Amino acid sequence: MKTLEKVNYKGFILPLAVGVILWCITPLRPAGLSAPAWEMFAIFVATIVGCITKPLPIGGTTLIGLIVTVLVGLAPIKDIADPKTGKVTTGILSAFSNSASWLIAMAFIMAYGISKTGLGNRIAYWMIKRFGKKSIGIGYAITGLELILGALIPSNSARTGGVVWPVTESISKDYDSYPNDPSRKKIGAYLSFMAFHANILSTALFITGAAPNMVASQMAEQKNYNMTWISWFSAAVVPVLVATIVIPLVIYKIFPPEIKETPNAEKWATDHLKEMGPVTKPEKIMSMVFLLAIILWVLSGIFGIPQLDSTFVAFLAVGLLLLTGVLTMKDALNQTGAWNILIWLSILVFMASKLISFGFIDWFSKTIQTSLHGISWQVVLAVLVILMFYTHYFFASGTAHMTALYLPFLSVAVATGAPLGLSAMLLAFTGAFNASTTHYANGPASILATTGYIKQGEWWKYNFILGIIYLLIFGVIGTLWMKVIGIW
Predict the structure, then answer these.
(1) Residue 410 has pLDDT above 90, yes or no
(2) What pTM was computed for the model?
(3) How many separate helices (H) and strands (E) can be counted in the chain?
(4) Which end of the chain is less congested by CB atoms within 10 angstroms, N or C?
(5) Which string of DSSP letters, residue by residue, matches 138-197?
(6) What is the CA radius of gyration of the chain?
(7) pLDDT by residue (tens digit) across 284-302?
């Protein structure tokens, strides 16, 4: 007998209440703000709250928000041009022409090739074999593995859950370090915590490292700042390199493993590589296609070649994987994560663009600018970065957090005189490393904080310390580096 799918109807209560209350006070809206602007704000906030309470998966929640936007008359189905003025009102179908959404969807499909061919696991075993003689060496190997996978796999949860955590768990148990047991501190707790922070670094290094990065990229475009693959990497490489050296050492000191020497890790990795056998033809093709994509992304960023648009390069890579037989069309269609993100990211960016076109963001930035009159932009930007970091305690989704606060914060920073490039990149990086807060901060946190190797109190305490280190590295070294390379 067929049954209905489960829906978290209780999850609708809070977003519905927030949306209705904001909508009902439209007549009391602040001066200088139009009714459509406030109504769009009400729907947007309700949608973001829904992304947190999750009555439906994020794709379904944002789709409901989009439907409501049409039903109340704030957007048509398709673009409509005013015959008198020629002004075009963008319809909801235009949302799905968003290039960033298609880029990350194609990147998800490419990433499946990494998994299907076994290339990801081969890289993991090779890294452990090369650097696995000491526990801190394994920590650095996991960090290096994540940095490599950050370029290959655009989902931070997929990197952790699909490759890094299985490797980490196997090594831990090989040394008789088990979850929910005193033996967890032998090495499992250290490696699990290290794997989480390695994920944060890989997320910060690449614009395709996680969905919130792409949200920031699209929001920055609303302020006429273009983030390319190479410009993001160029800005991130020095602070991430410093953090890659510092973070494993700090974790080793404040949360040390009982086992310091790990000679068995090399044998463990060697045995797994022998099981895999020689590099296969699909692995070789996958490597070449991805290397080609990286080269084209870099050339596009350096020379600004229109034909090498980042999204087109991703389409090209997927096309080559299909032509060579590494992937099938069935493989591509089965990547539900790709099509899910195509829906919700497109919708959230569209709704944010409506806030701009109705004048809400402009009103917000001018209001804040007036209230901050006389305060230097340096102080304002520092406060905004700190707020972007610590407000993540109230969010269980990096995407929802970035969508809610990135554009308003960027608008405020620029309105007070802060350089656009510096503001855009610092706030975007903060959206990557603010995951170092809670056990529910993002997907990897939810995976690694619940393995039984790390207690919740340890997670919060040590992450609080590491969060301050991230703020200092990116806020000070990152700012100086971006000055050197001319971002501001």
Answers:
(1) yes
(2) 0.75
(3) 23, 2
(4) N
(5) HHHHHHHHHHHHHHH-S-HHHHIIIIIHHHHHHHHHHTT--TTSGGGGTTHHHHHHHHHH
(6) 23
(7) 998 898 888 878 877 776 6
